[in-house]
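Quiz preparation item.
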């Protein structure tokens, strides 16, 4: 492929970039890109990838590594690069999550991890409940002869274990903190027949590996001269330390993209000084993006009021969108009973969809936590109006529905189901053909092999359609058909072709979750097409926590529960609470609605949130 001179390169698939984005895109050293809501950070990273690959600044065989906090963000970025770059270039772009990447290193080089810290060859992923951590802290503290810090079970592992570098060889603990952390590692590594590792532990073991085995670090740096880190404000202590050990020094260019005003993961160990530390350690240039391509000008003005509560010196974003609705772009709905709140919401949604020609997927219902509790109150009122709500935060097997829906195996398998149920699905056809080409390792220029795999796929598809036409959608039949698809795709081929599945049990987890959720979707479906629609959430209103909404956008967001009970831990000026509120507000393109119900709780703790909305000119509407 002919390369483009850097000065002749133009953005792919879009008209242009804002001036600040051009500056960041062409910077050849490490860069800290401050990208607020709607700044188009996924597009920016995809354009930078295209620029580096198409100009030969990142020549073959070198690769670009993109690390994201969430699996759906990693998947979205990978798909965007595939759209912006020819296949022979985009196949040198790897988009993974921190956890998947560090887990793959631990699994691949497990035997090289120092013996004192080496887990068993087969280990389990652990998500220890609060009660287990409480019991551990109480038991280990009793073994230390002196005073022990009062560790919180909520932050012990993410904040203390995550921030503690493992020595290559164990030594006798000198402090109570070192003793408690070492006891925790003993609990994870040695207390069971198989080690039980958390993702914090995997992050720390991967970082230890790089220090203990320098040639692994050198191999990473030789493979990936360019590294992108998305949602950088959510980077934990353990993840940042891994990034530092892996890519600091040498000629590596690291582009960190994020926004301090959207830091809502400190409870999970996110560093509050991530940007400042990165700028210092990597000598990075800081470049803020100023455009907002998502929200209307009126919404951007409201967002700026909240943004200033987080950062007095913040520059107001420049909306690149237009207002498409009449009346208020934001409101607070006040009610005295939960039943009144949800019945009004259901009626309003139906009316707004009809009047504006929207679909259920144009809306999202956001909550601060416990989406399952809100789901119970919503299902019946929405159903009476002919609407369905889907809790996308719920667990499916060992993963979540949201992660399943963005997983590459799941997307490929459900696309095959779509082709089996319908002959008019061009996007599903393209996705499946590309996947089969990748799985069968067909070179882009091999026309003979291309025709062979298309023939193979068409033959399988004919058989799949005949099978589905002969079977009604039931749980049993869904398992039969999903097994048929799994056998055709080939799990060994999937693991070989996609780096995220190359080691560990991620593929096994996603296959099990796919089969489980397909069977659940088939229960009440009248046809296989309806089953696939249910699986994909067609015509269903998504319900999720604000944390799960990061990176997503909707025409209208409805934030349920602006009250003291839902915000029980909030205190005035609490940065994470304000950031959560800001993230919810900034998901909206055209309208944001907040609800307060006195049956749920008072409004003393959340008074500052109401004051911010009032100062931004947002009216309160009494429903009853």
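Solution:
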């Amino acid at each position: 492929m002919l390369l483009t001179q850097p000065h002749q390169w133009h953005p792919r698939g879009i008209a242009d970039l804002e001036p600040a984005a051009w500056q960041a895109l062409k910077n050849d050293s490490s860069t800290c890109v401050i990208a607020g809501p709607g700044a188009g950070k996924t597009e920016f990273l995809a354009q930078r990838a295209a620029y580096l690959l198409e100009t030969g600044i990142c020549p073959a065989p070198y690769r670009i590594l993109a690390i994201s906090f969430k699996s759906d963000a990693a998947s979205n970025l990978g798909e965007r690069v595939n759209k912006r770059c020819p296949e022979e270039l985009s196949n040198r772009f790897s988009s993974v999550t921190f956890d998947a990447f560090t887990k793959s290193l631990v699994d691949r080089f497990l035997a090289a991890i120092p013996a004192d810290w080496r887990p068993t060859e087969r280990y389990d992923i652990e998500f220890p409940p609060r009660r287990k951590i409480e019991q551990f802290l109480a038991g280990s503290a009793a073994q230390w002869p002196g005073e022990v810090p009062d560790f919180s079970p909520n932050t012990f592992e993410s904040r203390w274990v995550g921030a503690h570098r493992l020595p290559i060889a164990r030594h006798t603990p000198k402090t109570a903190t070192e003793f408690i952390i070492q006891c925790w590692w003993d609990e994870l590594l040695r207390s069971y027949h198989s080690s039980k590792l958390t993702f914090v532990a995997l992050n720390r073991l991967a970082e230890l590996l790089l220090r203990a085995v320098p040639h692994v670090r050198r191999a990473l740096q030789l493979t990936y001269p360019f590294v992108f880190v998305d949602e950088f404000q959510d980077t934990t202590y353990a993840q940042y330390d891994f990034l530092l050990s892996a890519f600091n020094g040498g000629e590596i260019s690291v582009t960190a993209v994020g926004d301090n005003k959207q830091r809502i993961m400190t409870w999970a160990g996110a560093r509050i000084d991530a940007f400042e530390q990165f700028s210092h350690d990597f000598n990075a240039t800081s470049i803020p993006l100023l455009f907002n391509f998502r929200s209307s000008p009126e919404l951007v003005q409201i967002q700026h009021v909240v943004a200033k509560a987080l950062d007095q010196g913040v520059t107001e974003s420049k909306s690149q969108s237009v207002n498409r609705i009449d009346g208020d772009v934001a409101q607070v709905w006040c009610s005295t009973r939960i039943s009144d709140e949800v019945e009004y919401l259901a009626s309003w949604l139906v009316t707004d969809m009809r009047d504006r020609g929207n679909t259920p997927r144009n809306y999202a219902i956001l909550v601060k936590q416990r989406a399952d509790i809100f789901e119970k109150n919503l299902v019946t009122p929405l159903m009476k109006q002919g609407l369905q709500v889907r809790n996308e935060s719920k667990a499916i097997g060992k993963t979540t529905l949201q992660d399943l829906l963005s997983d590459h195996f799941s997307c490929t398998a459900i696309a095959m189901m779509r082709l089996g149920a319908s002959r008019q699905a061009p996007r599903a056809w393209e996705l499946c053909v590309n996947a089969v080409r990748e799985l069968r390792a067909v070179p882009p220029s091999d026309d003979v092999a291309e025709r062979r795999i298309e023939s193979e796929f068409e033959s399988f598809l004919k058989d799949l359609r005949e099978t589905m036409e002969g079977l009604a959608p039931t749980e049993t039949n869904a398992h039969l058909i999903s097994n048929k698809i799994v056998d055709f795709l080939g799990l060994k081929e999937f693991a070989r072709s996609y780096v995220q599945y190359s080691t560990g049990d991620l593929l096994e987890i996603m296959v099990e979750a796919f089969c489980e959720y397909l069977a659940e979707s088939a229960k009440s479906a009248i046809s296989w097409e309806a089953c696939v629609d249910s699986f994909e959430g067609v015509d269903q209103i998504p319900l999720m926590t604000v944390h799960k909404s990061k990176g997503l956008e909707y025409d209208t967001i409805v934030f349920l529960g602006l009250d003291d009970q839902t915000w029980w831990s909030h205190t005035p000026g609490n940065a994470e609470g304000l950031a959560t509120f800001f993230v919810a507000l900034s998901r909206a393109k055209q309208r944001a609605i907040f609800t307060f119900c006195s049956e749920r709780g008072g409004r003393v703790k959340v008074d500052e949130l109401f004051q911010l909305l009032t100062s931004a000119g947002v009216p309160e509407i009494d429903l009853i």
